[in-house]
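To whoever picks this up:

The parser on our side crashed when reading a file containing two proteins. I've narrowed it down to the boundary between the first structure block and the second sequence. Both blocks are reproduced below exactly, byte for byte. First block:
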Amino acid sequence: MRAPRPCGVCGAADAAKYRCPRCAAAYCSVPCCRTHRERCTAEPAAERRAAGQAFPGGPSGAGRRAGGPWSVEDILADGEEQDRVPLQKLQLLGESEELRGLLLNPHLRQLLLTVDQAEDKSSLMKKYMQEPLFVEFADCCLRIVEPPEKENILPE
Protein backbone atom coordinates (compact mmCIF):
# COMPACT_ATOMS: atom_id res chain seq x y z
CA MET A 1 0.00 0.00 0.00
CA ARG A 2 1.19 3.53 -0.79
CA ALA A 3 2.28 5.89 1.93
CA PRO A 4 -0.37 8.53 2.71
CA ARG A 5 -0.06 11.74 0.72
CA PRO A 6 -1.24 15.27 1.44
CA CYS A 7 -4.95 15.84 0.94
CA GLY A 8 -5.59 17.72 -2.30
CA VAL A 9 -8.68 19.38 -0.84
CA CYS A 10 -7.83 20.46 2.71
CA GLY A 11 -4.03 20.16 2.50
CA ALA A 12 -3.71 17.91 5.57
CA ALA A 13 -0.21 16.41 5.49
CA ASP A 14 0.13 12.64 5.03
CA ALA A 15 -3.64 12.18 5.37
CA ALA A 16 -4.87 11.35 1.87
CA LYS A 17 -5.74 7.68 1.74
CA TYR A 18 -8.19 7.84 -1.17
CA ARG A 19 -8.03 8.86 -4.83
CA CYS A 20 -10.67 10.21 -7.18
CA PRO A 21 -11.50 7.61 -9.86
CA ARG A 22 -12.04 10.39 -12.40
CA CYS A 23 -8.90 12.52 -12.03
CA ALA A 24 -6.74 10.65 -9.47
CA ALA A 25 -6.74 13.60 -7.03
CA ALA A 26 -5.90 12.56 -3.46
CA TYR A 27 -8.23 13.26 -0.54
CA CYS A 28 -8.47 12.22 3.11
CA SER A 29 -12.09 11.97 4.19
CA VAL A 30 -15.73 11.78 3.19
CA PRO A 31 -16.20 15.59 3.53
CA CYS A 32 -13.14 16.18 1.33
CA CYS A 33 -14.42 13.58 -1.14
CA ARG A 34 -17.75 15.38 -1.37
CA THR A 35 -16.05 18.76 -1.81
CA HIS A 36 -13.80 17.36 -4.51
CA ARG A 37 -16.66 15.56 -6.28
CA GLU A 38 -18.58 18.86 -6.54
CA ARG A 39 -15.56 20.52 -8.18
CA CYS A 40 -14.16 17.64 -10.26
CA THR A 41 -14.73 18.18 -13.96
CA ALA A 42 -12.42 15.50 -15.34
CA GLU A 43 -13.81 12.71 -17.44
CA PRO A 44 -13.27 9.19 -16.13
CA ALA A 45 -9.94 7.71 -17.24
CA ALA A 46 -11.62 5.13 -19.48
CA GLU A 47 -13.51 7.87 -21.35
CA ARG A 48 -10.30 9.93 -21.76
CA ARG A 49 -8.47 6.91 -23.21
CA ALA A 50 -11.35 6.22 -25.58
CA ALA A 51 -11.29 9.86 -26.69
CA GLY A 52 -7.52 9.75 -27.14
CA GLN A 53 -6.75 12.26 -24.41
CA ALA A 54 -3.62 11.74 -22.34
CA PHE A 55 -3.97 14.79 -20.10
CA PRO A 56 -6.86 14.87 -17.61
CA GLY A 57 -9.06 17.87 -18.23
CA GLY A 58 -6.95 18.74 -21.23
CA PRO A 59 -8.23 20.15 -24.49
CA SER A 60 -9.90 17.97 -27.05
CA GLY A 61 -6.69 17.70 -29.03
CA ALA A 62 -7.04 20.78 -31.19
CA GLY A 63 -3.67 22.43 -31.63
CA ARG A 64 -1.80 19.38 -30.39
CA ARG A 65 0.67 17.74 -32.71
CA ALA A 66 -0.63 14.35 -33.77
CA GLY A 67 0.79 11.82 -31.36
CA GLY A 68 2.93 14.50 -29.71
CA PRO A 69 3.06 15.48 -26.05
CA TRP A 70 0.89 18.22 -24.61
CA SER A 71 2.46 21.64 -24.70
CA VAL A 72 2.06 24.55 -22.31
CA GLU A 73 -0.18 26.24 -24.88
CA ASP A 74 -2.52 23.25 -24.83
CA ILE A 75 -2.91 23.41 -21.06
CA LEU A 76 -3.17 27.15 -20.35
CA ALA A 77 -6.20 29.17 -21.32
CA ASP A 78 -5.85 32.29 -23.48
CA GLY A 79 -6.57 34.56 -20.51
CA GLU A 80 -3.44 33.31 -18.76
CA GLU A 81 -1.06 34.58 -21.44
CA GLN A 82 0.33 37.35 -19.21
CA ASP A 83 1.35 34.78 -16.59
CA ARG A 84 3.39 32.64 -18.96
CA VAL A 85 7.12 32.37 -18.56
CA PRO A 86 9.06 31.84 -21.82
CA LEU A 87 10.39 28.31 -22.25
CA GLN A 88 13.99 29.57 -22.35
CA LYS A 89 13.62 31.02 -18.87
CA LEU A 90 11.93 27.87 -17.57
CA GLN A 91 14.89 25.85 -18.81
CA LEU A 92 17.15 28.01 -16.63
CA LEU A 93 15.33 26.62 -13.59
CA GLY A 94 16.47 23.12 -14.50
CA GLU A 95 20.06 24.30 -14.83
CA SER A 96 20.24 26.07 -11.46
CA GLU A 97 22.48 24.38 -8.88
CA GLU A 98 21.01 26.59 -6.13
CA LEU A 99 17.49 25.41 -6.96
CA ARG A 100 18.62 21.78 -7.13
CA GLY A 101 20.15 22.17 -3.69
CA LEU A 102 16.87 23.49 -2.27
CA LEU A 103 14.93 20.64 -3.85
CA LEU A 104 17.03 18.11 -1.94
CA ASN A 105 15.03 19.10 1.15
CA PRO A 106 12.26 16.49 1.65
CA HIS A 107 10.05 19.00 3.50
CA LEU A 108 10.12 21.38 0.53
CA ARG A 109 9.34 18.54 -1.87
CA GLN A 110 6.36 17.58 0.31
CA LEU A 111 5.09 21.18 0.31
CA LEU A 112 5.36 21.33 -3.48
CA LEU A 113 3.50 18.02 -3.87
CA THR A 114 0.74 19.29 -1.60
CA VAL A 115 0.34 22.48 -3.67
CA ASP A 116 0.39 20.49 -6.90
CA GLN A 117 -2.39 18.17 -5.70
CA ALA A 118 -4.53 20.78 -3.94
CA GLU A 119 -7.90 21.87 -5.26
CA ASP A 120 -7.51 25.41 -3.91
CA LYS A 121 -3.89 26.13 -4.87
CA SER A 122 -4.21 29.87 -4.31
CA SER A 123 -5.10 29.74 -0.61
CA LEU A 124 -2.53 27.03 0.02
CA MET A 125 0.16 29.14 -1.67
CA LYS A 126 -0.76 32.05 0.61
CA LYS A 127 -0.42 29.77 3.62
CA TYR A 128 2.93 28.38 2.47
CA MET A 129 4.32 31.84 1.73
CA GLN A 130 4.47 32.19 5.52
CA GLU A 131 6.92 29.30 5.66
CA PRO A 132 10.58 30.44 5.31
CA LEU A 133 11.68 27.40 3.30
CA PHE A 134 8.91 27.90 0.75
CA VAL A 135 9.67 31.62 0.52
CA GLU A 136 13.34 30.81 -0.08
CA PHE A 137 12.31 28.45 -2.90
CA ALA A 138 9.96 31.02 -4.48
CA ASP A 139 12.62 33.75 -4.24
CA CYS A 140 15.20 31.48 -5.85
CA CYS A 141 12.84 30.71 -8.75
CA LEU A 142 12.07 34.40 -9.25
CA ARG A 143 15.76 35.35 -9.22
CA ILE A 144 16.37 32.81 -11.97
CA VAL A 145 13.35 33.66 -14.11
CA GLU A 146 13.37 37.43 -13.50
CA PRO A 147 16.89 38.44 -12.46
CA PRO A 148 16.96 41.74 -10.56
CA GLU A 149 17.92 44.65 -12.74
CA LYS A 150 21.23 46.21 -11.89
CA GLU A 151 20.79 49.65 -10.42
CA ASN A 152 22.32 52.60 -12.20
CA ILE A 153 25.45 53.04 -10.19
CA LEU A 154 27.93 55.68 -11.25
CA PRO A 155 31.54 54.56 -11.26
CA GLU A 156 33.66 56.20 -8.55
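<<boundary where parser fails>>
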Amino acid sequence: MPKKNSGGPPYYDPPAKFAVVIKPWSTRSPPNRLQQDYDKVATWISYILWDAVGKKGRIPTVECIYRMRTGWKGDNVTDNGACTLVFEYNWTNNGNPATHNWEEFFP
Protein backbone atom coordinates (compact mmCIF):
# COMPACT_ATOMS: atom_id res chain seq x y z
CA MET A 1 0.00 0.00 0.00
CA PRO A 2 1.48 3.40 -0.93
CA LYS A 3 2.27 5.66 1.99
CA LYS A 4 0.02 8.70 2.27
CA ASN A 5 1.71 12.05 1.94
CA SER A 6 -0.49 15.12 2.14
CA GLY A 7 2.38 17.59 2.05
CA GLY A 8 3.51 17.12 -1.55
CA PRO A 9 6.78 15.74 -2.89
CA PRO A 10 8.58 13.54 -2.27
CA TYR A 11 5.99 10.80 -2.70
CA TYR A 12 6.93 7.22 -1.76
CA ASP A 13 6.18 3.62 -2.66
CA PRO A 14 4.74 3.68 -6.17
CA PRO A 15 2.62 0.56 -6.69
CA ALA A 16 4.01 -0.04 -10.20
CA LYS A 17 6.14 1.50 -12.93
CA PHE A 18 4.53 4.22 -15.02
CA ALA A 19 5.57 5.34 -18.50
CA VAL A 20 4.72 8.65 -20.17
CA VAL A 21 4.04 8.54 -23.91
CA ILE A 22 3.96 11.82 -25.82
CA LYS A 23 2.25 11.70 -29.23
CA PRO A 24 1.38 7.98 -29.16
CA TRP A 25 1.93 6.08 -32.35
CA SER A 26 -1.13 5.56 -34.54
CA THR A 27 -3.80 7.31 -32.48
CA ARG A 28 -6.18 10.16 -33.08
CA SER A 29 -5.55 13.54 -31.46
CA PRO A 30 -6.75 13.77 -27.81
CA PRO A 31 -10.25 15.19 -28.23
CA ASN A 32 -11.06 12.54 -30.85
CA ARG A 33 -9.54 9.45 -29.19
CA LEU A 34 -11.71 6.38 -28.81
CA GLN A 35 -11.35 3.29 -26.60
CA GLN A 36 -9.64 1.48 -29.49
CA ASP A 37 -6.87 4.11 -29.48
CA TYR A 38 -6.11 3.39 -25.82
CA ASP A 39 -6.23 -0.36 -26.56
CA LYS A 40 -3.67 0.15 -29.38
CA VAL A 41 -1.33 2.09 -27.08
CA ALA A 42 -1.62 -0.59 -24.37
CA THR A 43 -0.86 -3.35 -26.88
CA TRP A 44 2.08 -1.41 -28.30
CA ILE A 45 3.58 -0.76 -24.85
CA SER A 46 3.10 -4.39 -23.80
CA TYR A 47 4.89 -5.55 -26.93
CA ILE A 48 7.87 -3.19 -26.61
CA LEU A 49 8.34 -4.16 -22.95
CA TRP A 50 8.16 -7.86 -23.86
CA ASP A 51 10.60 -7.30 -26.74
CA ALA A 52 12.98 -5.43 -24.40
CA VAL A 53 13.41 -8.59 -22.31
CA GLY A 54 14.07 -10.76 -25.35
CA LYS A 55 10.49 -12.06 -25.68
CA LYS A 56 11.02 -14.29 -22.66
CA GLY A 57 8.35 -14.99 -20.08
CA ARG A 58 4.86 -13.63 -20.16
CA ILE A 59 3.88 -10.48 -22.00
CA PRO A 60 3.62 -7.51 -19.59
CA THR A 61 0.14 -6.20 -18.89
CA VAL A 62 -0.88 -2.56 -19.13
CA GLU A 63 -3.49 -2.10 -16.42
CA CYS A 64 -4.39 1.54 -16.92
CA ILE A 65 -3.65 4.46 -19.22
CA TYR A 66 -3.73 8.01 -17.88
CA ARG A 67 -4.26 11.03 -20.12
CA MET A 68 -3.48 14.55 -18.99
CA ARG A 69 -6.59 16.69 -18.82
CA THR A 70 -4.61 19.80 -19.66
CA GLY A 71 -2.20 20.50 -22.49
CA TRP A 72 1.51 19.98 -22.08
CA LYS A 73 3.90 22.48 -23.67
CA GLY A 74 6.26 19.68 -24.71
CA ASP A 75 3.57 18.25 -27.00
CA ASN A 76 5.01 20.03 -30.04
CA VAL A 77 8.37 18.34 -29.79
CA THR A 78 8.99 18.00 -33.52
CA ASP A 79 8.01 20.16 -36.46
CA ASN A 80 6.30 17.34 -38.35
CA GLY A 81 4.85 15.46 -35.36
CA ALA A 82 6.53 12.19 -36.44
CA CYS A 83 8.13 11.51 -33.06
CA THR A 84 6.76 9.50 -30.15
CA LEU A 85 8.52 10.07 -26.84
CA VAL A 86 8.46 7.47 -24.06
CA PHE A 87 9.94 8.00 -20.62
CA GLU A 88 9.39 6.83 -17.05
CA TYR A 89 6.90 8.84 -14.99
CA ASN A 90 8.60 10.38 -11.96
CA TRP A 91 6.39 9.14 -9.11
CA THR A 92 8.70 10.55 -6.42
CA ASN A 93 8.22 14.13 -7.68
CA ASN A 94 4.70 13.91 -9.12
CA GLY A 95 2.79 11.36 -7.03
CA ASN A 96 -0.23 9.36 -8.15
CA PRO A 97 -1.31 10.58 -11.61
CA ALA A 98 -4.97 9.82 -10.80
CA THR A 99 -4.89 12.59 -8.19
CA HIS A 100 -2.94 15.10 -10.32
CA ASN A 101 -5.15 16.10 -13.24
CA TRP A 102 -4.89 12.87 -15.27
CA GLU A 103 -7.87 10.88 -16.62
CA GLU A 104 -7.89 7.08 -16.34
CA PHE A 105 -8.66 4.75 -19.26
CA PHE A 106 -8.67 0.97 -19.00
CA PRO A 107 -7.61 -1.12 -22.00
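After patching the parser it read the second block fine. The longest strand covers residues 19-22. The chain has a mean pLDDT of 78.
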